[in-house]
Amino acid sequence: MTSTATTGRTVTHFPMLDESELARLFHRRPQPIPVDSDRELLATALGATLYIPAIRDGLVSLVERAAAAGSVSIVIDLEDAVPDDAVTAGLHAVVTALDTLARRGGPLLFVRVRSADQIDALIAEMTTGADILAGFAIPKFDSSCGRDYLTRIDRASDVVGRRLYAMPIIETPDVLHLETRGDELRAIAELLAEFRESVLTVRIGATDLCGTFGIRRDPDLTIYDVHPVASVIAAVVNILGRRDGTGFVITGPVWEYYNAHERMFRPLLRNTPFKEIDAVRFRTHLVSRDLDGLLRELVLDRANGLQGKTVIHPTHVNVVHSMCTVSHEEYVDALAVLGVDDEQAGPDAAGDIGGVLPSEYRNKMNERRPHRAWAERTLTRATVFGVTRPDVAVIELLTAVVDR
Fold first, then answer.
1. Could you tell me where the DSSP H helices lie in 289-385?
2. How far apart, in whole angstroms, are the C-alpha atoms of residue 200 and residue 167?
3. Where are the domains of the chain?
4. Which CATH class is domain 10-324?
5. Is the dihedral angle over the CA atoms 168, 308, 62, 33 positive or is it negative?
6. What is the spatial distance between Cα 110 and Cα 115, in angstroms, rounded to a whole number?
7. Which pLDDT value is given to residue 273?
8. 169-214, pLDDT tens digit by residue?
9. Which helix (H) or strand (E) holds 403?
10. Which of 64, 88, 112, 208 measures 20 to 30 Å from 79, CA to CA?
């Protein structure tokens, strides 16, 4: 289901880096990703998905500036970011913005609707805007309302002549509460399986989940310190993120802080790595922007099986993308697990299965069977975000791209 609207369009990370910087930082550079790629590759390429309220002044300019600074996926928000008395104005603003951006090109654009019928209304009102629309984010997705949303998105795909994707957001009390969680997630899994080709990622709405208990996460903490929500993340990954052909890419929840605050705890970034590259002042800058908490949460996201992240501020985008790059050590371990060499590396690389071998870095054992899914996912990430040189740490990449 591909039209000329997507043929030839690509997205590439770190567009702000020039040729000399790319050569200095990367062993393998980020590759252009066609917007009509297979679902897992495209889902990985979303990286930091920036949310922009539909009623922001200069919406088109905001999208274009964000794209120039590194955003490859943006959600224009018609739900929580729009007051109830501005819904109609927001809908018209989205239609106008998409029609304009379709003529100019841009990143992967999604719309978070507040009701299923807004999908039909947007498709009916747009003229050229459908050419750049990538799909819809579905708020408060559950087993009772989800079918209506997914059916309408499939119908909209038929109207525009190409696949429009759904990004359901898991954030309802039935998933949060222990007595209903298992049944609800299994019902959601069955529903999403019916519409598998239309589901790009499953997103987690941590703000709504916290709000159910009257919790607001402190910027000194990660979402994994908020145990009621951390248990939901674990359950979502367990049921919806399996690597047996039944799961989906699960996206990390939003980081909602971006300015300095009075701290109770020490910053989360160690001094030593910054001293080694003479970047102590840059560490202070990250801490002053509450980005040390974001960096820690990104590490924990990946440790818990999540990819990419929802962000609400443009300065977070390149932080997320830097943390998504693959280190040279990860890369050579993934190649070894899959039994392929550097020339064969890619999201579909596959070689020998079985056996145990020491890492080229001589600090761990690589077990080919249990590490296989990790290795496949790592090479997909390497294609999208690149592989840093052996002597380049993520801090050096951060210093090159943050606030560019």
1. 291-303, 317-324, 328-338, 372-385
2. 6
3. 10-324, 328-385
4. alpha beta
5. negative
6. 15
7. 58
8. 999 999 999 999 999 999 999 999 999 999 999 999 999 999 999 9
9. none
10. 64
